[in-house]
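To illustrate the input format used throughout this study, we show a single complete record. The first block contains the structure-token representation of the backbone; no residue identities are included at this stage. The design step must infer an amino acid for every position from geometry alone.
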């Protein structure tokens, strides 16, 4: 079984989007370099960011998101982002009316059911959990192995929190990855067990 990584780009004050779900300048680092991050060439980063991010993306077998993110992105048009094979959506509602049942999206009622399905699909590859409310619920349930943050040099002041509504204390190990890119600091922490 692969590791479970809670991930997102985050502001230095801990937000993944503003109150209207807009990331503002959080993703400026994805266009701040001269190394293409994917085959489209639309994302260009520094070499340091490329080396870490490309390797991480290539490990991901499944991404878990909440229904809110699924709805915001309109389900990415039925095609998982970034070349990921499957997306598991935590939702108490079924797939939208007219949703293509052949699309590699799976709907699960609750975080435990979502994790079970994601690990089944991912095998020994990484299960990525989107930060925010679902990520915070997964962390609180003890289902996350690592916290990965791409910290952007911006203060949003308020908005959607990286850890969602987590209220309890959770200890992380010292960072085992700290890499400076252009307009971003990549930091990875293992969750203390």
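Output of the design step:
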């Amino acid at each position: 079984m692969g590791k479970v990584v809670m991930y997102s780009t985050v502001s230095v004050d801990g937000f993944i989007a503003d109150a209207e779900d807009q990331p503002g300048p959080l993703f400026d680092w994805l266009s701040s370099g001269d190394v293409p991050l994917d085959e489209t060439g639309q994302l260009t980063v520094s070499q340091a960011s490329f080396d870490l991010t490309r390797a991480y993306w290539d490990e991901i077998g499944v991404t878990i998101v909440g229904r809110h993110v699924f709805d915001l992105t309109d389900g990415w048009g039925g095609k998982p982002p970034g070349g990921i094979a499957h997306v598991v959506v935590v939702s108490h509602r079924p797939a939208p009316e007219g949703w293509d049942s052949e699309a590699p999206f799976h709907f699960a009622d609750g975080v435990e059911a979502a994790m079970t399905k994601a690990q089944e699909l991912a095998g020994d590859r990484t299960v990525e959990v989107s930060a925010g409310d679902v990520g915070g619920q997964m962390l609180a349930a003890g289902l996350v192995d690592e916290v990965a943050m791409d910290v952007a040099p911006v203060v949003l002041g308020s908005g959607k929190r990286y850890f969602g509504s987590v209220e309890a204390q959770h200890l992380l190990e010292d960072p085992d990855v700290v890499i400076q890119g252009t307009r971003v600091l990549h930091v990875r922490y293992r969750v203390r067990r």
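Structural context for interpreting the output: The mean pLDDT is 96. The chain has four helices and twelve strands.
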